[in-house]
């Protein structure tokens, strides 16, 4: 089992006598290489991501690295429940119809491209799940995203903030575009911005399918 | 247990002595109402969707109907692995970064809005998962979507078609925009269209995170 320490810890009872290799944050490449090396040595290796390993996770990196560094190992991606979907389930049903997922982290994608994407999906009335919305050092991005959405959607547009879903610190805030920036949002949060038809129904955030 | 018959059947061993209420395709409202009636009568009811009930599924409809028709019942959404994610896992790792999900079915969303969304996400270089890409009666929509993507992306852009994922009929085709329309695509297919950085790596469709 190879993974970021908190993710491996979260396995709880599922961890038996497997050999465990953990590493800290921001050491993704190193972690991935450790997994590939163990696999090449004949071990059956699980490289753990939170959510879905194929969504802002380790699956793609493992494939890139295997090709670039010559690790000829078999790989299988086991899909998981991505953060947008577990957050949405807690909020109600905001992702019922067309939607987009956009990460506000400009570590791997240039900020200009992220802005272009935000403008496109805001104008096309898509419900949007924002990954990595804010960190201690990265505050401007969520402000800018909110400004872009406000150009295309009323301030009363429902917004959900789900933080640390599935953990003991799980928190849910249902608010709207005009009040989003006053809320606590961090690295473990997913922010879902509704579209023109999303509304609050009995305390839940729902994008109706149009039956009513 | 309330659900479309094939979904309930797919439960297999998980089905014990629960009371089962099934119904055919296109009877979603009826099925939902049956679930709400059973719940109001004091039963603990599971309303089954395939994939994630909150993504083109039954969760939102149940909430809309409960409010509109006065069913005061407790509801919890259990998130699942949505079709885009299970399809992506089979293809490789195409959804690693920002992406959109768009349904080509114009049953509940006007076709003009779907076109607007396709144009927006194609221009913003998002990887896109197309739900309900084609049916026997609905062929034009995938042709039009392909035309729109071709305006913004080269014909060699990788495209994955995953059909009936997780079933015995599971099928995977990896092709490109220029050859998409020659492939078999049906109601059980999800089509994933890569963006400008998506590429084939050792037979897998990957959107690189930019480490290499």
Fold and architecture overview:
Two copies of one chain form a homodimer. Chain A has 212 residues and is of the alpha/beta class. Chain A has six helices and ten strands. Chain A has a five-stranded mixed β-sheet, with helices on both faces. In chain A, strands 3-10-9 form a three-stranded mixed β-sheet. In chain A, strands 1-2 form a two-stranded parallel ribbon. In chain A, helix 5 (111-123) links the parallel strand 4 and strand 5 (127-131). In chain A, helix 2 crosses helix 3 and helix 5 packs parallel to helix 6. Chain A is elongated, with a radius of gyration of 19 Å. The N and C termini of chain A lie far apart (48 Å). Chains A and B meet through helix 3, helix 4, strand 3, strand 4 and helix 5 of A and helix 3, helix 4, strand 3, strand 4 and helix 5 of B.
Q: What is the topology, as strand order, of the major beta sheet of chain A? A: 4-5-8-6-7
Stretches of chain A where pLDDT falls below 50 for ≥5 residues? none
Number of helices of chain A: 6
Number of strands of chain A: 10
Shape assignment of chain A: elongated
Largest sheet of chain A: 5 strands, mixed
Based on secondary structure, the structural category of chain A is alpha/beta
Provide the residue-averaged pLDDT of chain A: 95
Assembly state: homodimer
Helix percentage of chain A: 25-40%
Largest protein interface, residues of each chain: A-B, 63 and 64 residues
């Amino acid at each position: 089992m190879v993974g970021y320490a908190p993710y491996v810890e979260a396995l709880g009872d599922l961890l038996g006598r497997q050999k465990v290799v953990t590493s800290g944050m921001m050491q993704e490449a190193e972690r991935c290489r450790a997994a590939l090396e163990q696999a090449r040595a004949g071990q059956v290796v699980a490289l753990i991501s939170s959510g879905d390993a194929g969504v802002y996770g380790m699956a793609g990196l493992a494939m890139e690295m295997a090709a670039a560094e010559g690790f000829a190992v078999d790989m299988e991606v086991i899909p998981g429940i991505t953060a947008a979907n577990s957050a949405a389930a807690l909020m109600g049903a905001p992702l019922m119809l067309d939607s987009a997922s956009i990460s506000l982290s400009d570590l791997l994608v240039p900020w200009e491209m992220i802005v272009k994407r935000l403008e496109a999906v805001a104008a096309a009335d898509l419900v949007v799940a924002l990954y990595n919305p804010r960190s201690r050092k990265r505050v401007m991005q969520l402000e800018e995203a909110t400004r872009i959405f406000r150009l295309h959607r009323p301030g009363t547009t429902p917004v959900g903030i789900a933080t640390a879903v599935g953990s003991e610190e799980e928190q849910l805030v249902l608010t709207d575009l005009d009040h989003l920036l006053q809320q606590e949002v961090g690295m473990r949060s997913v922010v879902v911005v509704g579209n023109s038809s999303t509304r609050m129904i009995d305390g839940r955030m729902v994008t109706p399918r149009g039956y009513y």
